Amino acid sequence: HPVMPALVEVYVNSILVINNKGTNEYFNKPITEEEIRNVFRNSIFGANFDSQNKQITAMEIDNEDTSIELNLEKPSLASQLLLIYYLLLYEDVRLSNAATLIANGRKIKSYSAAFLSELPIKYLLHQAQKDQMSYGGLFSPLLRLLATHFPQLSLVDDWMDDQVFGDYCRHQSDVNLSDTAINDAFQSIESNPYKTGKILKAMLNKNPTDIWPFAEIFVRYIKSVLGDQVPRHIQELYREVWLRLNTVLPRCLWIMTINALLDLN
């Protein structure tokens, strides 16, 4: 609904902006990180929000309350976009009013950069870009906030690269993608590059979220792909798949890539 972004803005201001004309005794509470994780845990990115693997950061607010336990079905794109908008707007308003908040002695919740980087911001924003008729009122302010707080996710090359983001070039593939198939293909990358290329092309024919479950095993072979005996065509296909994965959870992919290059896995 077109009113929702404005309601989010009012909600954020009610948490952070001090009203000099009225009482400031009562403030709304910010949404906890665990409540936000609960939403994304029920989305297609759920595996990346396993509560057993995530450390919950305590909120620093005036009166600490326990988070509300939510029982959510699969969230819609709109609900996820609104949560991203809330988070980015909250941090934007908090930083803009930091001096006033400190002067008034208020302890305010801040969402860490590490937590924000866990979220599929880039992927969700691109989904909104594809359907601006439905999300036009949300896409522009989201893009502005993204450019301010996450300039590394706002690179022009990424947004202009139709090969990475476009759906028109995808075709049906009869290759069955699995951990075993990907392992076998990369283990024979020098002796049988055709087999590796077939797997990489199959990955390119999938949506980024469909191949994300294979990201860890895919990145594990990055040093093998850089070998002198590997055909340039295979290296280019690998790069294209990596860029497609980079549209889903960039920071997570970067960490996996660095670990693979440094043999830290």
TrEMBL record:
| Listed Pfam families | INTS2
Among InterPro entries, the record links this protein to: INTS2
Q: Which domain of life is it from?
A: Eukaryota
Q: Name one GO cellular component term.
A: integrator complex
GO biological-process terms attached to the record? snRNA 3'-end processing
What is the name attached to this protein's record? Integrator complex subunit 2-like
